[in-house]
Amino acid sequence: MSKEDEARNTSAPGVWPGLGYQDARAGLRFLTEVLGFTESLTVDGDQGRIEHAELLWPEGGGVMFGSLGPKDTPGTAGIYVVTADPDSVHERAVEAGATVRHAPYDTDYGSRNVTLLDPEGNSWTFGTYAGAAARSGTDPRT
Description:
The chain is of the alpha/beta class. It is 20% helix and 34% strand. It has helices spanning 3-8, 24-35, 86-95, and strands spanning 18-21, 38-44, 50-56, 62-67, 78-82, 99-106, 112-117, 123-127. It has a 4-stranded mixed beta sheet with strand order 1-4-3-2. Strands 5-8-7-6 form a 4-stranded mixed beta sheet, covered by helices on one side. The chain is globular, with a radius of gyration of 16 Å. It starts with a helix and ends in a 15-residue tail after the last strand. The mean pLDDT is 87.
């Protein structure tokens, strides 16, 4: 991770989307090598399983995942990741042969988005929209 990336990702995420993969090693490679997450922690289990992994997004936030059990179903998550450059994520995904659900497009609410599928069918949308500011009186911490 570059010094610039470290500076942007200085605080720990407060919300961690969680995924399960039948082939968590393939998920790890896709998320790091294709999409651009950085590996923070991987806890190996028996027989090549990943019991727990944490990946960080260089622009802030993170995701956790691990190997699914034999009765679990993959490919049911939809994740949104804020990025300044969804087009470069799209380019890396296309070069790697990833399934593109929606090529880069502009939304009515001012975001530029691209949606991809990981090897087990989870949907990943990368976009420039960082969310709306909290309205006065709606923050549960106040």
